[in-house]
Amino acid sequence: MSAVQEVVTEAPTLDAVPKKAMTLGNGTSLIILALLIIVPLLVKNFIIFQLTMLLIYALAVLALNILTGGSGQFSLGQSAFYAVGAYTSAILMEHADINYALTLPIAGIICFAFGFLFGLPALRLSGVYLALATFALATAMPQLLKLGVFEHWTGGVQGLVVTKPDSPIAALFGHKISQDMWLYYFTLAISIAIYIFSVNLLKSRSGRAFMAIRDNEIAASAMGIDVALYKTLAFGVSAGITGVAGALGAIAVQFVAPDSYTITFAIQLFLGMVVGGVGWLPGSIVGAAFIIFVPNIAEGISKGLSGAVFGVLLFLVIYLVPHGARQVAMVAQNLIGKLKKN
Amino acid sequence: MELFTNQILAGIATGAIYACMALAVVMIYQAIDHLNFAQGEMATFSTFVAWQLIQWGVPYWGAFLITLAFSFVGGILIERVLFKPLAKAPILTNVAGFIALFAIINSCSGLIWDFTIKQFPTPFGSSPFLGSQLISTHQAGMIGVTLVLLILLFFFFRFTRIGLAMRAAASLPESARLVGINTSWMIALGWGMATAIGAIAGMLIAPVVFLEPNMMIGVLLYGFAAAVLGGLTSPFGAVIGGFLVGIFENLAGTYIPGVGNELKLPIALALIITVLVVKPAGLFGRPIVKRV
């Protein structure tokens, strides 16, 4: 091959998302919040559990959204951060008897550090290379967790069983508030806090720096943005939030095992982000709903074909609504606006 | 010392697998500037097709050729139908497309041929090669096929008009179009060739790791590692990278305590990250300069 250096103008990592388009209006937010608060009072425990998982996955998708939609970096390795969070929480609860609520910030901090460190080599990578490195991380993670060296702590292949926390206010209301319901509201409170944090983060100076890097790295650095710092920071924040989600997941499922955190899970999260709309934070919950409920539907159609149904749906989303749920929401908003005028 | 030489020999044998896969990875990367995450699944699917043909009584080499043709056409079809519309789309959309393809093909091969492990025949036999206990004739055959493939590819790219056109379309699509090259079809051709090479890799690997829908995931990761090590722009580098990764894996397994079978994938991970950080262009790749 020729010795000439290749000069390329890279395809954009993703279409630019204007900042205003990243969140919802106040009114809509309040309606969704009200729904999230009321619905669990009306449904069975199993559905409450599913709703808890919905919120947890939404958090994980949100984290990925900050990384990809915010700073324009890929990750197919979110399952690894989720696993680290889940294991941190499980080990702290089972081996050190720490209260479950306290394990969350610890899991978040450990994952932040892990993500930040992983972000350092990832700095030099962009686009496909980054996807590759994180893909490798996600594939390797279950094997790392199974390692004999850590077996005393991680329980090896068997994993760890986590005790479900009791509701501290159950005594006040008798048996009306079950463990599941308590856990749901606990998760909801944390999710709301993290959502508000994320929205503000993206509105802040750091958020603008992320977006500048996403849109044009060279221009961003010319404006005096410390590209290296903000890229690793985005990785760290994303990993930290994913870690908290993982910890919540461990508490809700009451079980951690290496094979729950495979590349398939990372792909599901990625898929959730694409379906929800890249860079649109409220879309995270739509994406999470997709990855929780659609496999059930797909398996209902045909057990062996659930992967195929998944893939076909993903292709449909890419072709028909490349901006995911955001696009649908925008169309709906326009329609409502027109109806109001008439 | 003998242990050392033996391990290197064994490493070259496993390396041939990775080299084959890396070659397919590099082919597609050359054509479309993307890493195809579904490459492994496509190779597995092709291998299943070959297995099915053999079950139906087609002789091995007949099945081999039919599978190659099938994969070539299949690769072109996938490009024409699914990925051509995404040519101008952002990287993210393309990655999502590859992942969707991964899920679809994996699930289909599981559905059609189920998840039980199947034995795949080898045309080379499995007796010890030249009296050596470490390399079987199959592994020697695998190394041979990989090298022949590399030489063929070299001649194809260096001495044929269409090879030249493919190189032109990959490096400067606009100029290539100006001199009358149909760049869009060159990409489709790249897909077809990469799929066919992947099919060869799959058929060579299947006798070693046994045939099942997920057989390629680990191999693909090593293939990526090999391609990255050799440089994503160089087929020659990919093959050398494959052998080096194979040797490295074996030596690490023998001499570093605690690295056994259970650490196989983490080694690939460490290797990929180290290479990307230390020498992103790989050993034989060209450095890429970004235009502002």
Layout of helices and strands:
The complex is a heterodimer of chains A (342) and B (292).
Chain A: E1 6-8, H1 26-42, H2 45-71, H3 78-95, H4 100-122, H5 127-146, H6 151-154, E2 160-161, H7 170-173, H8 179-203, H9 205-215, H10 217-222, H11 227-253, E3 255-256, H12 263-276, H13 283-301, H14 306-320, H15 324-341
Antiparallel strand pairs in A: 2-3
Helix pairs in contact in A: 1-8, 2-8, 2-9, 2-11, 2-12, 2-13, 3-4, 3-5, 3-11, 4-11, 8-9, 9-11, 12-13, 13-14
Chain B: H1 2-32, H2 39-55, H3 60-83, H4 91-113, E1 128-129, E2 132-136, H5 137-159, H6 161-171, H7 173-178, H8 183-209, H9 216-230, H10 235-255, H11 264-278, E3 288-290
Antiparallel strand pairs in B: 1-2
Q: End-to-end span of chain B in angstroms? A: 53 Å
CATH architecture of chain A: Orthogonal Bundle
Estimate percent helicity of chain B: over 70%
CATH fold-level assignment of chain A:
ABC transporter involved in vitamin B12 uptake, BtuC
Major β-sheet profile of chain A: 2 strands, antiparallel
Radius of gyration of chain A equals 21 Å
Strand content of chain B: under 5%
As residue ranges, the low-confidence spans of chain A are: 1-10
User: Judging from the principal axes of the Cα atoms, what is the shape of chain B?
Assistant: globular
The ordered string of helix (H) and strand (E) elements of chain B is: HHHHEEHHHHHHHE
User: Tell me, what's the shape of chain A?
Assistant: globular
Q: Can you tell me the CATH architecture of chain B? A: Orthogonal Bundle
Q: Give the tally of structural domains of chain B.
A: 1
Poorly predicted runs of 5 or more residues of chain B: none
Structural class of chain A: mainly alpha
End-to-end Cα distance of chain A: 65 Å
The largest pleated sheet of chain B is described as:
2 strands, antiparallel
Radius of gyration of chain B: 19 Å
Which whole number gives the mean pLDDT of chain B?
83
The most extensive interface between chains reads:
A-B, 60 and 58 residues
Mean pLDDT of chain A: 81
